[in-house]
Amino acid sequence: MVDKIQLGEIAVAVTRKDIKNVHLSVHPPDGRVTLAAPKGTRLEVVRAYVASKLRWIRDQQAKLRGQARETTRQYVERESHYLWGRRYLLSVREAETKPAIRLDHRRIVLTVRPGANRAKREEIIHEWHKSLLHNSLPKLIQKWEPRLGVEVAGYFLQRMKTKWGSCNHRARHIRLNTELVKKPKDLLEYVVALKLRHV
């Protein structure tokens, strides 16, 4: 059974589970708030706990609202691209060589074969984004597994339209949105910890 409590403009969905501690979560992308409490916790106790965390809830919601989705990229010269929350300008070079990407100060330098179309350029950058996430994620998972007392069997990366990640409780897998590479690293860590908590 799910109870709803309302504090000002903030609605919280409350569930009671066979757990020891309270778990308060603010979910991407829209800032929905949920709270899991130990069985038998009275609603007024939950309300007081949420009231003490209102500033944190609002901070998390503001962070998520600030992560607005970008317009469709064209992968052309001097176009803005984001990486770990910082803005870079794209520089496109054509050469008869294997496609490559490197960071140069505030530029992302993309080398493609002559005539490579938008879809090909996007695919190269998407694969690069995935490799950056693969470099960051194992460390974050190892950091949070012992803290949350969980063990994840694996993770997957994919493009997602409406959420930052999901988890499969039965298979102990988490799935993360490749768009996270464009956001500040603390958002990536927040989403990893949030999904691991539900594994």
Description:
With 199 residues, the protein is α/β, with parallel strands linked by helices. It has two domains: 2-65, no CATH class; 80-197, Zincin-like. Helices cover 33% and strands 32% of the residues. The protein is built from four helices and eleven strands. The protein has helices spanning 43-52, 54-65, 118-148, 185-197; strands spanning 2-7, 10-17, 23-27, 32-38, 80-83, 86-94, 100-104, 107-112, 154-158, 165-168, 173-177. The strands form three sheets. The chain has a four-stranded mixed beta sheet, covered by helices on one side. Helix 3 crosses helix 4. The longest helix has 31 residues, at 118-148. It is elongated and about 70 Å long. The model has no long low-confidence stretch (mean pLDDT 91).
Give the helices and strands, then pairings:
Blueprint: E1 2-7, E2 10-17, E3 23-27, E4 32-38, H1 43-52, H2 54-65, E5 80-83, E6 86-94, E7 100-104, E8 107-112, H3 118-148, E9 154-158, E10 165-168, E11 173-177, H4 185-197
Parallel strand pairs: 2-4, 6-8, 9-11
Antiparallel strand pairs: 1-2, 3-4, 5-6, 7-8, 10-11
Helix pairs in contact: 3-4
